[in-house]
Amino acid sequence: MRAQPLNFRTAALLLGFGLLAACGGKKTELVAVPGDELECMARAMYFESNRSSRDGMIAVGNVVMNRVHSEAFPNTVCGVVGQPKQFAPGVMTKPMNDRSAPLARASALAVLQGERHPKVTRAKFFHAAWYKANYNNMHYVVTAGGNAFYEKRRPELVTTPNPLPPLEGITPH
């Protein structure tokens, strides 16, 4: 497979995050991220986490990546995010134009470079935290950013059948 050249936006983000990481004294390995994958991930985070918290955005990104790595879903971020009736209507077309767009893009880059939400683990699904689902196969792992995240399990293996109280402030900043 031939490597694609970085576009300006991706290169600028990588450089900016490299400088931020260097300021913090942490040794961080940077991974080149295609600009379209970054944009698709940022859109999913922006529209699905209610533009609320970094934790919520990282959790949404974690679900997207879990789906990318699953045989049951497309194998690209844009393929997963663009699936019909899986994410918010207009996720690929509506403008991102408020103050949360930079947080969504920074969070998207972090997830694409390997960051994961510590509580999402293998979850591939979520719904709005206020929604009351009536299924017996939903094992909830965390509620963050206005969403309840869950794994689908056989009913006898579900130990947390109800959404958990919101948990924020656990992803590194």
Automatic annotation (TrEMBL):
Residues 1-21 form the signal peptide. InterPro entries: Cell_wall_hydrolase_SleB, SleB_dom1. The keyword Signal applies. Coiled coil: none annotated. It comes from the Bacteria. Keywords: Signal. Residues 53-150 form the Cell wall hydrolase SleB domain. This is Spore cortex-lytic enzyme. It comes from Sulfitobacter dubius. The gene is sleB_2.
